């Protein structure tokens, strides 16, 4: 199952495609910044603004060691490492993302504070209580075994540490339209309602579970990006570099799913009792 998920997200030379897009955008690899990369390496609804918003809600502090489950290219990991002055370990099933993410981390000179490796959030290769906190941004839509995924996060986070997710939860108005960014046709999609997510996090042992509806903000961003795509005005650097020619249809369906209540996007923050 994780092989199919990885194949869905990326194949081939992701790093090469990003470098080509950076050149087209007039960015120099010698003087690259976290902000330069943000249009392509925050791979979730609303990109960097959503990562900033997530950071505003996290009780992270300097010197912490954080875990990013489903880290993708590592944009959020690098942003949080700089913002909080902490270390971040990222893990993702998709090899081409990890390869590109490592090279981008080196380009930014952040290899000492951000490490990325390939692996599955349902079976984490870290010891108990390793991390001060963890998060998974737009990952759980592809996770068939949430008890293992949340249980593994609980195990590797220290007592008193935090855990956060952002996701497209299942809405109550019927099945999702496809394709969407996380699935071409429904295969590899495992959405649950926000209520079920809260139950599952509680069953894993997390407490103080706080849910924020992000649907309207996400919807506005999808509409704005879609409008650019329909006018042929997408910038050289953006998520379409990763998603390919089907990007506009996926954004259109993501917007329709939210509008019609078929998905229910949320940010969820909770804590392991200390
Ligand atoms: C929408 S991307 C988000 C990437 C990153 N979190 C970000 O916000 O930029 C979803 C990512 O989840 C990863 N993923 C899906 N299932 C996973 C699992 N079981 N374990 C680790 N990563 C997973 C995919 O490979 C993909 O990179």
From TrEMBL:
Top EC class for this record: transferase
Residues in the signal sequence: none
UniProt entry keywords in alphabetical sequence: Methyltransferase, Transferase
GO molecular function: methyltransferase activity
Alphabetical GO biological process terms: methylation
Domain of life: Bacteria
SUPFAM superfamilies: S-adenosyl-L-methionine-dependent methyltransferases
Domain Methyltransferase type: 67-165
Pfam short name (any one): Methyltransf_11
EC number of this enzyme: 2.1.1.-
InterPro entries: Erg6_SMT_methyltransf, Methyltransf_11, SAM-dependent_MTases_sf
Record has Transferase as a keyword: yes
The keyword NAD belongs to this UniProt entry's keyword annotation: no
Listed name of the protein: Class I SAM-dependent methyltransferase
Organism from which the protein derives: Blastococcus deserti
């Amino acid at each position: 199952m994780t092989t199919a998920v990885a194949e869905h997200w990326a194949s081939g030379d992701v790093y090469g495609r990003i470098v080509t897009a950076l050149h087209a955008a007039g960015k120099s690899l010698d003087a690259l910044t976290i902000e330069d990369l943000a249009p392509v390496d925050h791979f979730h609804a609303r990109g960097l603004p959503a990562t900033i918003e997530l950071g505003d809600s996290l009780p992270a502090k300097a010197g912490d060691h954080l875990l990013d489950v489903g880290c993708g290219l590592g944009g959020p990991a690098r942003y949080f490492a700089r913002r909080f002055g902490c270390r971040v370990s990222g893990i993702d099933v998709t090899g081409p993302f990890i390869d590109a993410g490592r090279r981008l981390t080196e380009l930014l000179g952040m290899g000492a504070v951000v490490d990325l490796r390939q692996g599955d959030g349902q079976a984490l290769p870290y010891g108990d209580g390793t991390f001060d906190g963890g998060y998974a941004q737009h990952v759980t839509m592809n996770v068939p075994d949430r008890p293992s995924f949340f249980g593994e996060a609980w195990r590797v986070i220290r007592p008193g540490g935090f855990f956060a997710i952002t996701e497209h939860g299942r809405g109550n108005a019927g099945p999702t339209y496809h394709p969407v960014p996380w699935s071409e046709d429904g295969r590899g999609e495992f959405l649950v309602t926000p209520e079920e997510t809260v139950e599952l996090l509680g069953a894993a042992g997390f407490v103080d579970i706080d849910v924020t509806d992000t649907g309207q903000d996400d919807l506005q961003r999808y509409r704005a990006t879609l409008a650019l795509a329909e006018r042929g005005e997408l910038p050289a650097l953006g998520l379409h570099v990763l998603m390919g020619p089907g990007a506009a249809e996926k954004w259109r369906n993501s917007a329709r799913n939210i509008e019609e209540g078929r998905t229910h996007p949320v940010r969820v923050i909770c804590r392991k009792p200390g």
